[in-house]
Amino acid sequence: MVHANRTIGADLAGSGIDGPGTGLRGQLARHALLPLRLFLGATFLYAGIDKLTDRAFLAAGGSGSLGEMLRQVHDVAALPQLVDLAQQSPVGFGYAIAAGELAVGLGTLVGLLGRLAALGGALISLSLWLTVSWATTPYYYGNDLAYLIAWLPLVLAGTPRFSLDAALANRRKRQGAQLFG
Prior knowledge:
The chain is mostly helical.
């Protein structure tokens, strides 16, 4: 066995998740996070685009506006201080959330800085849960908590398959092998 085969998967305590396949089961295990990554990335990308193209949402007031929604959730939010902060500039905050969702969605889909993108998605979901959907009862009717939990495996594992992160890591390994051969 060559050295490279012995050390692959060492970051996962030798679980061999990156190592040679163990048949179909091994192949499926290596790609287990891909559906979650695609779903979350596409959803956040769509959410960002939807916000940027919705004139009503990016208004300080009126039906369907972020400003109106912030007024409605202020008294029932777990952290009304976050709502107060957003109410200082609802339009600016709306653009910031949309830009954050776009960055998270793109980063997750292409797998560039995958852990950082997933952390951003988790933080957006956490802030929405603590403000907008906190008062939802029973709690499982609110989707922000479920999104927060769904981001955690990607925060922990990153984007190891079909990603720019993986391509860059492979390139670094190849160049390192050429330098230190």
